[in-house]
């Protein structure tokens, strides 16, 4: 009410002062209500993503329902171990001997440098290792892990470690080796404690049945011990002669399939139709040459809605074959600048319209992604790995926000494409493939249209949790 209105009501100075105070209090309450409403909106947005994670978890739970009880006919010993972990209170402590994490230590090759050779030999004879003997022991440990060791990490160990961490348990890596030698292993698996003597623990995992670590735990699990009721871990298999031959056949199939696919659609005179033909025929021939079969759940989510930003977790070079195969046509991608120099992938990816980014320059990378929004608005979907690089384990790296910014700006949903086993079929830094089965789950779309920049970190973390939930509790049905 105006000042003139107040005077015409005959209110005195004191009444007017009280009215002003009440008005100010009302304004404050309105502002507080607005703030609460905004907070509720933000929480609702995050809740929508979390609800999506809950839906996936519920479906996964239904998928494994027949093995709900320990020792049931449908459950595996690893399933039972996971259920025990999830049922144990958060204050528990789990200790993994290095032998339960790494399948074996490879022998140094003829071209292995002297320092790396000394460290690899030191894994077998720890007393020979001395950090002072190396110019940069920490850097050496990292190099040896990335070049020689990562391929021998047990996938089952990663799963159990992650289950312990999600249950709130403390996880320790047990090794008599100097810290610089095993720190990269611990860091890659997310383990914060490295100890030589773990003390009393609730859970213990070690190779064989006679490891002393197994005598001091409430729940002791022997790994790959003959005649034991422990767990069987399956190491990633090193390539054999037939794997090299299959890879050669697959590479030829990739090239010939690309040419056939383009020729098959050339009469349309439409570049996108030819690109779709290339991706279909090239990916089909490559997977057939390797002897790789894809087992897909949620395939219906690949076709609708479109356009969309398809997010996939990245472990292997094989991912760039798997993703276009399961998504079908009318999709392109985003790749690292280095791929332009690849003699096979470079020309193929340029033909299908892949956008290349320079990961070493954040400003250039953002600028390169700007046209992708126009691509999405034009009706073409995008496939991108939000981690930005391949993982050393079946686990996930940090999700970058670029893909989500693109989806928000273009007004399209994001659709998670979760890949399991690709890192076992073709190791992270290896061009050699092995025959086998790769599981793919295409999850329901996630609407990002109402997301706010201030809540992006929380929403991205929620989407990442959807990926991890799926990897840990694999669904057999998403309907």
Report on this structure.
The longest helix is centred in the N-terminal third of the chain and has 51 residues, at 13-63. The protein has helices at residues 3-8, 13-63, 77-87, 114-124, 137-149, 155-166, 179-189, 241-265, 271-290, 319-327, 345-351, 362-377, 402-410, 422-425, 456-472, and strands at residues 93-97, 170-174, 193-195, 201-207, 217-223, 292-297, 309-312, 331-336, 355-357, 381-384, 414-420, 436-442. The chain contains 15 helices and twelve strands. Strand 8, helix 11 and strand 9 (355-357) form a beta-alpha-beta unit. Residues 1-26, 28-47 and 56-73 have low confidence and may be disordered. The protein folds into two domains: 77-223, Rossmann fold; 241-472, Glycerol-3-phosphate (1)-acyltransferase, CATH 3.40.1130.
Strand count, sense and barrel status of the largest sheet are: 7 strands, mixed
What CATH calls the topology of the largest domain is Glycerol-3-phosphate (1)-acyltransferase
Low-confidence stretches: 1-26, 28-47, 56-73
The assigned structural class equals: alpha/beta
Count of discrete domains: 2
Helix content: 40-55%
What is the N-to-C succession of helices and strands? HHHEHHHEHEEEHHEEHEHEHEHEHEH
Overall pLDDT confidence: 83
- The strands making up the biggest β-sheet line up spatially as 6-12-11-7-10-8-9
Q: What is the CATH homologous superfamily assignment of the largest domain?
A: Glycerol-3-phosphate (1)-acyltransferase
User: Please, how many helices?
Assistant: 15
Question: Radius of gyration, rounded?
Answer: 28 Å
Distance between the ends: 58 Å
**Which CATH architecture of the largest domain would you pick?**
3-Layer(aba) Sandwich
Spatial shape: globular
CATH class of the largest domain, anyone?
Answer: Alpha Beta
Structure summary, number of beta strands = 12
Percent strand equals 5-15%
């Amino acid at each position: 009410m105006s000042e003139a209105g107040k005077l015409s009501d005959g209110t005195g100075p004191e009444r007017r002062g009280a009215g002003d105070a009440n008005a100010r209090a009302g304004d404050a309450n309105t502002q507080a209500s607005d703030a609460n409403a905004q907070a509720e909106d933000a929480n609702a947005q995050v809740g929508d993503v979390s609800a999506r994670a809950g839906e996936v978890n519920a479906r996964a739970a239904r998928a494994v329902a027949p093995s709900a009880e320990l020792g049931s006919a449908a459950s595996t010993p690893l399933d039972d171990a996971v259920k025990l972990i999830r049922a144990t209170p958060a204050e528990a402590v789990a200790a993994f001997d290095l032998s339960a994490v790494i399948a074996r230590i490879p022998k140094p090759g003829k071209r292995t440098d002297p320092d790396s050779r000394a460290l690899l030999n030191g894994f077998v004879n720890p007393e020979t290792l001395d950090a002072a003997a190396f110019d940069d022991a920490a850097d050496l440990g990292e190099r040896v892990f990335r070049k020689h060791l990562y391929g021998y990490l047990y996938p089952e160990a990663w799963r159990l470690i992650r289950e312990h961490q999600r249950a709130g348990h403390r996880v320790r890596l047990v090794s008599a080796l100097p810290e610089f030698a095993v720190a990269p292993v611990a860091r890659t698996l997310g383990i914060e404690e490295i100890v030589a003597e773990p003390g009393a623990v609730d859970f213990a995992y070690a190779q064989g049945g006679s490891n002393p670590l197994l005598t001091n735990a409430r729940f002791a699990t022997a790994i790959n011990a003959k005649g034991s009721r422990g767990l069987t871990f399956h190491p990633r298999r090193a390539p054999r002669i037939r794997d090299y031959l299959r890879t050669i056949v697959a590479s030829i199939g990739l090239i010939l399939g690309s040419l056939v696919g383009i020729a098959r659609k050339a009469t349309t005179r439409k570049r996108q139709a030819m690109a779709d033909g290339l991706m279909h025929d090239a990916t089909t021939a490559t997977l057939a040459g390797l002897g790789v079969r894809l087992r897909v759940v949620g395939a219906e989510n690949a076709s609708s809605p479109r356009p969309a930003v398809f997010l996939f977790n990245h472990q292997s070079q094989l991912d760039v074959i798997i993703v276009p195969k399961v998504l079908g046509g009318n999709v392109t991608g985003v790749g690292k600048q280095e791929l332009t120099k690849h003699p096979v992938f470079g020309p193929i990816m340029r033909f299908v319209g892949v956008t290349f980014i320079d990961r070493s320059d954040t400003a250039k990378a953002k600028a390169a992604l700007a046209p992708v929004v126009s691509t999405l608005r034009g009706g073409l979907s995008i496939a991108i790995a939000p981690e930005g690089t391949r993982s050393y384990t079946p686990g996930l790296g940090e999700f970058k926000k670029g893909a989500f910014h693109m989806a928000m700006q273009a007004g399209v949903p994001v659709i998670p494409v979760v890949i399991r086993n690709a890192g076992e079929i073709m190791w992270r830094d290896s061009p050699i493939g092995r025959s086998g089965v790769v599981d793919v789950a295409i999850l329901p779309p996630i609407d990002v249209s109402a997301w706010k920049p201030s809540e992006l970190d929380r929403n991205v973390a929620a989407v990442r949790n959807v990926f991890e939930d799926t990897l840990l509790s694999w669904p057999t049905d998403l309907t």
